[in-house]
């Protein structure tokens, strides 16, 4: 029985990983409503600026068993001097024919749009989920971490993709003995922490965006986020926020640091299969009562204050707050192997590697 390729089927795009992967693989989907929002050409600011994109699903016997999306991030190409298309959400059963037709569709898209390289996973940009898991299979992941079984990198390599840009995710056992020694913030020098709470959410998150754009400006593949893009990605975070965990570091009236740490949603998402239904309030209440895991989505310090110990102080404050609040595990989303400063922070923190990831790329004639 042959594999059917379909384009633009949103429902199948959401369903594909549930058919492709076993529960033991540990895959947890974003909410169905979030997937629909991401693919909406009217609601997602990435698409409304004119970014070309397309997505496909592979069906065998009528069931979607694979998916992929491709787009050309023109701002990224202009900033970094590349001519590449990006692929993302490549989730596929261990099915060579399904993988081939999906990746061929993304390759044809790349060629049609005049690009010479296809790179991914980006779900959907470098400031969201990135990478393909290549190690640490079976380790329980946190919100915003990519999970796939071992056959996915094999399928990519079988279709001419090569791995590059190695990354790691990390985990900290908050119940373990040990203190993260860091120089405290000097209030006398004008520094103070502003918590990200409901009443100040919009203002604090805009400050966090400015800090992120400044602090990450020199990072490979980074593209500054517009206010619309940042609100689109982070706007629904308010509903799950624990104000004890996230904060913006101020120097006088200027935001100079930010750390965004949220409760891990993966247990709730797995229990609901990432769908909103009649039982969702029950599952959410149980999750709120039992949550003991949290994840740092990002942390940043403005570039002119690098090397002053601010990031260490911010991490130390967050770890202390997590312990007081009763959290026992902390996940940290991907850090590139080339980011020596952040890797030193993980070592000092006592965090251990959780997953190994790589980007994959293919030259397009």
TrEMBL record:
<dbReference type="GO" id="GO:0016740">
    <property type="term" value="F:transferase activity"/>
</dbReference>
<protein>
    <submittedName>
        <fullName>GNAT family N-acetyltransferase</fullName>
    </submittedName>
</protein>
<dbReference type="InterPro" id="IPR016181">
    <property type="entry name" value="Acyl_CoA_acyltransferase"/>
</dbReference>
<keyword id="KW-0808">Transferase</keyword>
<dbReference type="InterPro" id="IPR039968">
    <property type="entry name" value="BcerS-like"/>
</dbReference>
């Amino acid at each position: 029985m042959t594999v059917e390729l379909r384009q633009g089927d949103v429902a199948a795009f959401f369903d594909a990983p549930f058919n492709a992967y076993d529960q033991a693989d540990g895959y947890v989907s974003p909410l169905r409503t979030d997937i629909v929002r991401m693919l909406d050409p009217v609601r997602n600011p990435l698409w409304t600026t004119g970014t070309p994109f397309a997505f496909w699903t592979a069906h065998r016997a009528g069931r979607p068993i694979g998916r992929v999306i491709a787009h050309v991030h023109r701002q990224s190409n202009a900033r970094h001097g590349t001519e590449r298309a990006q692929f993302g959400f490549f989730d596929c059963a261990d099915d060579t024919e399904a993988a081939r037709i999906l990746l061929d569709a993304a390759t044809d898209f790349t060629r049609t749009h005049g690009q010479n390289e296809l790179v991914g996973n980006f779900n959907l940009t470098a400031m969201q989920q990135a990478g393909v898991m290549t190690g640490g299979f079976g380790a329980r992941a946190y919100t915003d971490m990519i999970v796939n079984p071992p056959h996915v990198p094999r399928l990519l390599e079988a279709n001419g993709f090569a791995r590059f840009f190695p990354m790691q995710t990390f985990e900290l056992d908050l119940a373990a003995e040990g203190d993260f020694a860091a120089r405290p913030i000097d209030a006398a020098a004008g520094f103070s922490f502003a918590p990200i709470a409901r009443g100040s959410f919009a203002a604090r998150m805009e400050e966090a965006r400015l800090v992120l754009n400044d602090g990450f400006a020199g990072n490979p593949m980074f593209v500054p986020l517009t206010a619309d893009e940042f609100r689109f990605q982070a706007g629904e975070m308010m509903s799950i926020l624990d104000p004890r965990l996230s904060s913006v570091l101020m120097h006088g009236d200027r935001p100079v640091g930010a750390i965004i740490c949220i409760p891990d949603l993966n247990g709730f998402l797995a229990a609901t299969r990432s769908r909103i239904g009649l039982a969702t309030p029950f599952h959410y209440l149980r999750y709120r009562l039992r949550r003991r895991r949290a994840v740092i989505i990002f942390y940043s310090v403005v570039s002119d204050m690098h090397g002053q110990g601010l990031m260490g102080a911010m991490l130390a404050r967050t770890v202390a707050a997590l312990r007081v609040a009763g959290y026992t595990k902390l996940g940290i989303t991907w850090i590139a192997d080339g980011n020596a400063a952040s890797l030193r922070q993980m070592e000092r923190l006592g965090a251990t590697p959780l997953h190994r990831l790589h980007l994959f790329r293919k030259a397009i004639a």
